[in-house]
From TrEMBL:
Family: Belongs to the peptidase S9A family.
Lineage, opening ranks: Eukaryota, Rhodophyta, Stylonematophyceae, Stylonematales, Stylonemataceae
A GO BP entry: proteolysis
Peptidase S9A N-terminal domain residues: 74-471
Reaction catalyzed: Hydrolysis of Pro-|-Xaa >> Ala-|-Xaa in oligopeptides
Residues in Peptidase S9 prolyl oligopeptidase catalytic domain copies: 533-745
GO MF terms, alphabetically ordered: serine-type endopeptidase activity
Enzyme class name: hydrolase
Keyword Hydrolase in record: yes
Protein name, per record: Prolyl endopeptidase
InterPro entries in the cross-refs: AB_hydrolase_fold, Pept_S9A_N, Peptidase_S9_cat, Peptidase_S9A, Serine_Peptidase_S9A
Stored SUPFAM superfamilies: alpha/beta-Hydrolases (SSF53474), Peptidase/esterase 'gauge' domain (SSF50993)
Xref: Pfam families: Peptidase_S9, Peptidase_S9_N
Keywords for this protein: Hydrolase, Protease, Serine protease
Amino acid sequence: MMRTGFISGSIIHWRRRILQKTAMDNRAMIATGAAVGIAAVITARALTGAGSQFEPPILDKREHQVAFGYVEDENRGENPMNPPIFREDPYFWVRDDTRKNKEVIKHLEKENAYTDFKMKPLKKYTESLYKELLSHVQETDSSVPYKHGPYEYYTKTVEGSSYKIHCRRELGSEKEEIILDENVLAKGKKHCDVGAVEVSPSHQLLAYSVDSTGYETYEVLIVNIGTGKVVDQALTETAGGLTWGRDDKHLYYSTFDQAHRVDKVWRHTQGDTKDNDILLFEEDDELFSAGFQKTRSERFMLIGSQSSETSEGYILDLTKESTEAELIAKREKGVLYDMNEYRGKLYIITNKDDAKNFKLMSTNVDQPGPENWKEVMPYDKDIKLDLLSSFKDFAVLYGRQGGFTQMWIVRGDDDALTRVEFEEKAYTVAPGINEEFETTTYRFSYSSLTTPMQTIEMNVDSGERKVLKEQPVPNFDRSSYESDRIEVTAEDGTKVPMSLVYKKDLLNGNDPKPCYLYGYGSYEISIDPFFNSKLLPFLDRDVVVAIAHIRGGGEMGRMHYENAKYLKKKNTFTDFIACADELVAKKITAPDRLVIEGRSAGGLLIGAVINMRPDLFHAAHAGVPFVDVMNTMSDATIPLTTGEWEEWGNPNEEKYFDYMLSYSPYDNVQKANYPALLATSGLWDPRVAYWEPTKWLAKLRENNLSDGDILLKMDLASGHFSASDRYKLYRERAFELTFLLDQLKVLRTD
């Protein structure tokens, strides 16, 4: 797990364990017209006296010393400082792992009430923005059906219904069969996130996982599709990922340890108790997390464990009765590898032998050891390889080149590679749903900043492509917008890309425009140029949208990531500042017309840059922000901490203590004229706990010298990925956009 989005347990390739709910988090952008600002509508302070309920809530200070270094009977890493260093944290008491402390809940309710009061004068704009967002959504819609055995499967949404409906129909038939209606499942629940939905090999059973709290802990139910009856609900507190074996008898899943780390992979016998499940793999090293994936041939289950820097994989032959998986390559510090089966061989993508951007190798399944690996694609330092998706007679290789995603078709006995070419200069391609093993066609998705997502089917024999569907976007004319990509020179001379999208001809003049700048910059996650209808409210108000492809992300390859982690993490922040400075220098915008946003680890980015350059930004939104770096990364009992010692470093060790302290947002708040700030969070978030933004805002308010509002909006019923209800999610985004657009003075109602 990491401070972003993916469903743990079923890992498509565990070097990058992400379902990419991330890339701008797909929730991170939106906005609408007569310019108006909060100050022009109402001045809250003028309406209320000191001590009023509408003053910012004050968080009590209570003496507490936090130890960094050695603590008896605690996991503090390999080389903790001894004696430890102690630091005072007067807001430490806000942490409550149970989320039941009445005093804490009362404070969060006060924060919400204060935020509601400050935003109340803009309520009509929030409602207008909500309607505007929905105006770009085809609310009743369905996905492209995909063939799977004797059926076509698809999902659909219905106007007014908040959740997906999973359906199928027999090949050649128009008769629809609903196999899972998430709307029915969500009734009576404040939160309902369906993780995996897996049809059994016979197509008679459906296994699905559901999280009802937002804490990303999933219950598993197995349903008889024909009768709709639950036949098995023995599995609780799982990581969410599910895979059937070769028949309906066995279901594979994974579970967490106490720190929410995926540490075990299991085989469950359908209809049996959980107590009789077979443990296939257990990872004891707290730096590592486990995962699993069935090959498309259904012959093997691949089981793996990975830290940020090291992999270890196993292969289990599902055609045999044995539950003993065979080791592929023993873990070696710094060596990462991902594998898949193709044409009876194992194909491995690895950084072995100093292949920084990874290379493609293969070996016989019965000789999986690294001494037998042979090179398939010569190493190219300018091409980053990511994953291989394999079929009976071909495979598809994904990677990056020149800052963008690329794909190659692998065919023939000689593993000949053919790159798939596209017309647009800046675009994003990603795997689609491809269930059939014996096929000559392959589906993938394609998008750009001005092209809504397309589902494309390619005939791998002829190369012919067919757009099966382009996501409908009502009230959108792509000819009205244009995009650009520029290079920014970072503080140390590194070239950092930045994508721009804006109304056509908007930049013809010399006057600075309102601008929205987004960034992330961690975990090698790339913020690729894809279409997001939630950007349209910005664009349609003549706001320039910019995306900073800063180091810490993977846009330019592995070194783009490695040059902004550990003791180089500050490159992420200075790159972002360089991008903002470039926008100002080119007169695209000005500091008083620039708003910024980041989410999760991107919230760390926001917290760091407003400490470093509070003068450069007018306002900011930090979503579920990871801002209490020192406290969180020193405590191994907090979810994600141990696995991320290979991302940020361990502040319990002298090597990292001073450096991490120098950028941790919570620890570097100072007397300054801070930009206006909205922080949003979820009480049940396991990735970035609610107490981080709560403490951070209390400290910011204490030190802020400007008149800018500092607001916290805490969802008391959700986790890291906000609301599961799509309409509630749009309302949340409308609220966030109201704040940002008001700060840019471009709010209006049409």
